[in-house]
Structure formats: structure tokens, C-alpha cells
């Protein structure tokens, strides 16, 4: 990679050992992925729940945090993805003291490094959404795909170590979605039926993700007959990123880089095209619930709920009572508003539990299943459905309204 | 080199030898594994139930989210880890995770590597060569 004088100085340790480690890490990654140089980034977002970090990862962070302050300074705003717990509700989830202790240690290390502990995967709805053309270093695949596609920003998937590196150096290797040539469509999807519910959008994302197949594919969709709102884009993007490891999509006439299909088709390129209709979306949803008669809990999470989703859940629960655990997970930015507007109170009065700053699958989901006897769950998140079976759960993908019905009917899934 | 050598476009980590565990399926440490027991647990995965500890994993593409960037480091620290990853297609997360963990990984072939390497075959993976490769022993 071609390095500037400042990057050579970083590499020589002139900005301290943390930044020196960071730029070496970035050079390794950049060389593997064909980056020719670095690009300056304006924000970083770090995924680092302690189930992923483990003891080894927390100790690694603590070593960096113990450096003298001037040797571990972040140089751009750097925020955090959800934690592995909501301390206020950990006992209700039957999380173990060792999990909470590890979380406390990780948080202390991040705070020492100057990370803003936003604990959210919906920063594009709540913190500071990036603008078109802005280069950023975001973790959490849902954050990256939304920022790239809906905002027109430029980021690759930056895992925790790389996002932290970007925070320390203020730059990231220039490859992938920082480059114009990687942002053209590689497959085209003709959508014959515009999704209605959030789980429909997630199912469409899952289908397109499976068709795309890997990180370097960019689907362009046409046929969507209305402008999706932010929550719909959120569920679509999160599922697409989860099922396909995809980081960028275009919706013709909707997303900023694709006002016309020709805007995102490279000249003389030939791309595969596919048709996706309502029957495909229904089949996708039904493929998860076929053998499930009852569930042990209902989870709204992945991504965290917006204020609008919180209001929808509260409205659906009014006058009803959940008879199985109903977990509603939102961000620390939305939670105070939900408290102030009475949404939290309405959800909890109906038997739900509102959780803040965590995400269900990032919170020791296997251990929670064993401690609580949870084996089967219902959710309206296609992303969660895709992830959670690896943790031993059997998931059903149904609408938000159906989730509430399930929660209030002892877990029975209506057919 | 014989015709049993398959060259990759990218490589990282150290030279290793081991028994190949092969499937035409993806890889995500978060989505697919019980990392404490060292087995594939995602029911839909073609290697569900198989132990990956010490094996050279030969799979199709990196899947899923960003957690693998930390998890390879954590798995290696506990010693419950594959010997190497060999993939047709990587995503940045696998590269970032391998870089942090000093983990052996190669990727990018002109053939489908999951069809070229028999399951259970002994293989050598050398990411340090001028052209990284996997070789049937």
C-alpha cells in the first residue's frame, strides 16, 4: 500500500503503540483485500459484545486501555454497538454474574479509550446518520448496509478490531465499497410484490441475500411500488446483510445512487436477473415455522426497535396480557423517549420486558436458553431467525401483530 | 508443484498441515458454531454436528456478521479452533479476524475449492508462499 508521511509516522510509533498496532493491522487487511492506499474516515462504530470478545478479547482491550492516555487517543468520533446485557434486567434474563463482570470490564476499557458508549445498532436512526459520499468505518452489518445503501455513505464491514483501528488512525484501507467501481449492481431483482409488514421486508432481504451469495455482490431491485420507510429499509437491509453478507443494495427510484437502473449498471456489463414475488416471500416465512406449534418466548430485536416500532408494539398490547416472556429490545437513545411517552409502561404493564442497549443474539443467547428453558421463539426479525438457530433455538418468523398474538395466547402459533 | 496444488489470490498466517473438513457451504463463527464445544451447530449447515477443532476448513464463502473478527482470536486463545480456513470467497471480516488472531487463511481460486479437495484428505496450507496455496498430501 502507498503510505503518506503521516501513515509512515503512525507505523513508526510516533503516535504511540495503540495507533502503531492499528495501522499495522489495517495494512495487513488492506494488502489482503487489494487496497492501494488509505481513505480518511469521519466516524467509527465498534461491534464488541463480550460473547464475541471472550476473556481473551477483553484482556486485549484492557492492555490497550492501560497505556498512557496520550498513547491511546481516538482521533474521530467512535461509538459502540449493543452490549451483551442490559444490567437493569440481567437477573430477569438469568444472565450469570461472570457475564456481567466481563461486560463491565469491556465497558471500562472502551471508556478509557474514549469510545462513546452508544450501545446501538440503529445509530443511523438515532445518533448521526452519515451523508452521501461520507467515508466511515462502521461495524454491525445492518449499520453498514443501511448507511451505504439508504444514506449513500461508504463503508466496508469493519469488525471490532478494524473499527477500533479506524478510530485510532482516522482512516481505513481504501477497498470495496469506498471505491466507485465496487458500487455497481452485480445482480438485478424484479420484485413483483411490494412487502407490507416488517417481516415481509426481512423475508425479501433474506431471499435476495441467498441469491447474492457473498460480500462482493450488489443487488439492484426494481418493481417496489412505494417508498419504503426507515424501519422497512432497516429490516430489509439487516436481513440482506445477514443472509448474504451483502453490504450495499440499490432500489431503483428510491436509494440515492439508483435514480435509474442505468445509474448502477456498469457499462457493457452483463448481470443475472431474478424474479421474486409474494409466493417466494410467503414460502420463505413458512419455511421457519412449519414444525413449530408453540414457542417459549417472543423477541423483538435485531435490529433494535425505533421509537415508532416501540409505539406499534405498545399499541398492539393495549388491553392485553402477555403470558409468555415478551422481550422488546431498543437503544439507549430511544428508551428514555419511550419511558417519557409512556410506551415502556404500557408494554411492561402488559407483561412485556423492555430492554435497552443490548441485542438478543449478542447477549449469551445459548446460556439464556439453557437457564430459562427456552427452545423455540417467535420474532418478526428475519435477521434474528437466521442467526439464532446456531444458538440452539427453533425460530418462527411472523409479523409483529402475530408475535403479539402468540405472546398473549400462551405461545401458540395460529395457523 | 503437482496438479494437486491449488493457488489462492490471498493468504495470511502461518503454514499448517491437517485433515480437511470440506463442504459447499458458508462460514460464520457466530451463526454456525458452538465455539465452546468446537462443533458446527447450525442445523441447516452441511457440517452440522461435525467437530472443526484442528481441521483445515474448506468452505465456499464467508457469511454473516462482524463477530468473527473477534471470535477467531477468542477461539484461538482457548485452543478450540480450526487449523486453517480455506475459502472460495472471503469478506473483510474474515480477513480482519485472521489478522487479529494471526490465523491461517487463504482464499480466491480459479476453481471451486470445495470440489477440488476431498473431505478428510490431508492437506498443506501455505499462506507465506509467493503464491499462497493448498496442496493435497
Percentage of residues in DSSP E strands of chain A: 5-15%
Summed up, the helix count of chain B is 4
Beta-strand residue fraction of chain B = 25-35%
Question: How many separate domains of chain B?
Answer: 1
Seen as an oligomer or otherwise, the chain set is heterodimer
The unreliable regions of chain A are none
Helicity level of chain A, as a percent range? 40-55%
Instruction: Quote the distance from N terminus to C terminus of chain A.
Output: 58 Å
Question: Could you say what the CATH topology of the largest domain in chain A is called?
Answer: Aconitase, domain 3
CATH architecture of the largest domain in chain A: 2-Layer Sandwich
Cα-atom Rg of chain B, whole angstroms? Answer: 13 Å
For the largest beta-sheet of chain A, the strand count, sense and barrel status come to: 5 strands, parallel
In which order are the strands of the major sheet of chain B placed?
1-10-9-3-6-7-8-2
CA gyration radius of chain A, whole angstroms? 21 Å
Instruction: Give the CATH superfamily of chain B.
Output: Phosphohistidine domain
Largest interface, and how many residues on either side? A-B, 44 and 40 residues
The CATH C-level class name of the largest domain in chain A: Alpha Beta
Mean pLDDT of chain B: 95
Shape of chain A: globular
Summarize this structure briefly.
The complex is a heterodimer of chains A (415) and B (137). With 415 residues, chain A is an alpha/beta fold.
Characterise this structure.
- The complex is a heterodimer of chains A (415) and B (137).
- The longest helix of chain A has 17 residues, at 97-113.
- The model of chain A has no long low-confidence stretch (mean pLDDT 97).
- By secondary structure, chain A is α/β, with parallel strands linked by helices.
- In chain A, the strands form four sheets. A five-stranded parallel beta sheet of chain A has the order 12-11-10-13-14. In chain A, strands 8-7-6-9 form a four-stranded parallel beta sheet. Chain A has a three-stranded parallel beta sheet with strand order 3-2-4.
- Chain A contains 17 helices and 14 strands.
- Chain A has helices at 5-11, 17-32, 50-65, 90-93, 97-113, 123-126, 141-149, 160-169, 198-212, 230-244, 278-289, 307-317, 334-340, 343-349, 365-372, 382-388, 400-408; strands spanning 38-40, 44-46, 78-80, 137-138, 171-173, 187-191, 219-222, 250-251, 272-276, 297-305, 326-330, 353-356, 376-379, 394-397.
- Chain A folds into three domains: 5-179, 2-Layer Sandwich (Aconitase, domain 3); 184-285, no CATH class; 291-408, Aconitase, domain 3 (2-Layer Sandwich), CATH 3.30.499.10.
- In chain A, 42% of the residues lie in helices and 13% in strands.
- The radius of gyration of chain A is 21 Å and the shape is globular.
- Chain B is α/β, with parallel strands linked by helices and 137 residues long.
- Chain B has one domain (5-136): Phosphohistidine domain (Glucose Oxidase, domain 1).
- The termini of chain B are close together.
- The chains are: A alpha/beta (415), B alpha/beta (137).
- Chain A binds chain B through residues 25, 28-29, 32-33, 47-49, 52-57, 60, 139-141, 156-162, 175-176, 213-216, 241-242, 244-245, 361-362, 366, 386-387, 389-392, and chain B through 10-12, 26, 30-34, 41-45, 61-71, 73-74, 76-78, 89-93, 95-97, 99-100.
Amino acid at each position: 500500500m502507498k503510505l503518506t508521511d503521516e501513515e509512515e509516522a503512525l507505523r513508526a510509533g510516533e503516535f504511540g503503540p495503540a495507533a502503531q498496532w492499528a495501522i499495522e493491522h489495517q495494512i495487513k487487511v488492506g494488502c489482503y483485500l487489494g487496497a492501494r492506499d488509505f481513505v480518511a474516515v469521519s466516524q467509527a462504530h465498534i461491534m464488541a459484545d463480550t460473547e464475541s470478545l471472550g476473556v481473551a478479547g477483553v484482556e486485549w482491550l484492557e492492555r490497550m486501555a492501560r497505556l498512557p492516555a496520550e498513547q491511546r487517543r481516538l482521533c474521530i468520533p467512535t461509538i459502540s454497538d449493543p452490549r451483551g446485557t442490559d444490567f437493569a434486567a440481567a437477573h430477569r434474563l438469568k444472565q450469570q454474574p461472570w457475564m456481567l463482570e466481563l461486560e463491565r470490564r469491556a465497558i471500562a476499557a472502551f471508556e478509557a479509550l474514549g469510545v462513546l458508549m452508544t450501545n446501538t445498532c440503529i445509530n443511523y436512526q438515532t445518533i448521526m446518520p452519515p451523508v452521501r459520499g461520507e467515508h466511515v468505518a462502521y461495524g454491525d452489518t445492518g449499520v453498514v448496509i443501511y448507511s451505504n445503501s439508504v444514506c449513500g455513505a461508504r463503508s466496508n464491514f469493519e469488525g471490532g478490531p478494524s473499527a477500533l483501528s479506524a478510530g485510532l488512525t482516522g482512516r481505513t484501507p481504501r477497498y470495496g465499497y469506498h471505491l466507485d467501481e465496487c458500487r455497481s449492481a452485480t445482480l438485478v431483482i424484479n420484485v413483483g410484490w411490494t412487502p407490507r409488514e416488517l417481516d415481509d421486508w426481512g423475508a425479501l432481504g433474506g431471499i435476495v441475500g441467498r441469491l447474492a451469495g457473498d460480500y462482493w455482490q450488489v443487488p439492484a431491485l426494481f418493481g417496489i411500488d412505494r417508498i419504503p420507510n426507515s424501519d422497512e429499509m432497516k429490516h430489509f437491509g439487516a436481513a440482506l446483510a445477514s443472509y448474504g453478507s451483502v453490504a450495499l443494495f440499490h432500489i431503483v427510484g428510491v436509494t440515492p445512487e439508483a435514480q435509474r437502473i442505468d445509474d448502477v449498471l456498469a457499462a457493457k456489463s452483463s448481470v443475472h436477473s431474478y424474479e421474486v414475488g409474494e409466493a417466494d416471500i410467503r414460502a420463505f416465512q413458512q419455511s421457519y415455522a412449519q414444525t413449530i406449534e408453540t414457542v417459549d418466548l417472543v423477541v423483538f430485536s435485531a435490529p433494535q426497535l425505533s421509537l415508532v416500532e416501540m409505539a406499534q408494539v405498545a399499541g398492539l398490547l393495549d388491553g392485553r396480557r402477555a403470558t409468555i416472556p415478551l422481550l422488546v429490545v431498543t437503544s439507549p437513545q430511544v428508551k428514555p423517549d419511550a419511558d417519557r411517552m409512556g410506551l415502556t409502561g404500557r408494554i411492561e404493564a402488559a407483561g412485556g420486558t423492555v430492554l435497552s442497549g443490548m441485542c438478543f443474539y449478542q447477549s449469551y443467547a445459548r446460556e439464556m436458553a439453557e437457564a430459562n428453558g427456552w427452545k423455540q421463539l417467535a420474532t418478526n426479525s428475519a435477521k434474528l431467525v437466521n442467526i439464532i438457530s446456531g444458538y440452539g433455538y427453533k425460530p418462527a418468523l411472523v409479523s409483529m401483530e402475530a408475535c403479539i398474538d402468540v405472546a398473549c395466547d400462551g405461545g401458540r402459533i395460529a395457523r | 508443484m503437482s496438479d494437486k496444488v491449488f493457488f489462492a489470490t490471498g493468504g495470511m498466517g502461518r503454514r499448517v498441515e491437517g485433515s480437511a473438513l470440506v463442504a459447499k457451504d458458508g462460514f460464520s463463527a457466530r451463526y454456525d458454531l458452538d465455539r465452546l464445544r468446537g462443533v458446527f451447530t447450525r442445523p441447516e449447515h452441511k457440517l452440522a454436528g461435525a467437530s472443526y477443532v484442528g481441521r483445515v476448513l474448506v468452505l465456499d464463502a464467508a457469511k454473516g456478521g462482524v463477530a468473527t473478527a473477534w471470535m477467531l482470536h477468542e477461539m484461538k486463545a482457548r485452543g478450540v479452533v480450526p487449523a486453517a480456513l480455506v475459502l472460495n470467497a472471503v469478506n473483510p471480516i474474515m480477513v480482519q479476524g485472521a489478522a487479529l488472531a494471526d490465523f491461517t487463511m487463504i482464499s480466491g481460486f480459479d476453481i471451486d475449492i470445495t470440489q477440488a479437495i476431498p473431505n478428510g484428505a490431508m492437506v498443506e496450507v501455505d499462506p507465506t508462499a509467493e503464491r499462497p496455496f493448498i496442496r493435497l498430501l
